[in-house]
Amino acid sequence: MEDPINQPSIIYLSRRNLEALLSKLNRSFNGEETQCTIIKVQQPSSAYRQTMREILVVAVDDEEYYALQARPAGEMYPLDEASLTVPSTGLRNSSTTR
């Protein structure tokens, strides 16, 4: 019998979901009002079933997120980091383009 307490939670986000979150972050950075939450509700017939009843994913700007952490942003896989417009430190700098 599986122990649900020790099982990792799984959330499946499509490229569309992720791009929507990124769009909301960019709009927020530009001063626009935006709701930054995607709600994933369990769909019994889905091929990609979530492992919990409901999941809320909230987009937070890097500056805000890492300002409240007791540590800096961690390292990323090099190919992923190379495709970013913001360095893995999570902080924008003058040499970073958007």
Assembly state here?
A: single chain
Major sheet: arrangement of strands:
1-2
Instruction: Encode the helix/strand succession as letters.
Output: HEEHH
Low-confidence stretches are 92-98
Strand content: 5-15%
Question: What's the story with the biggest beta sheet?
Answer: 2 strands, antiparallel
Shape: globular
Rg over CA atoms: 16 Å
- In whole angstroms, the N-to-C terminal distance is 49 Å
According to DSSP, the number of beta strands is: 2
What would you say this structure looks like, in words?
The protein has helices spanning 15-29, 62-67, 78-82; strands spanning 37-41, 54-58. The protein has 98 residues and is α+β, with helices and mostly antiparallel strands. The protein has a domain at 15-82.
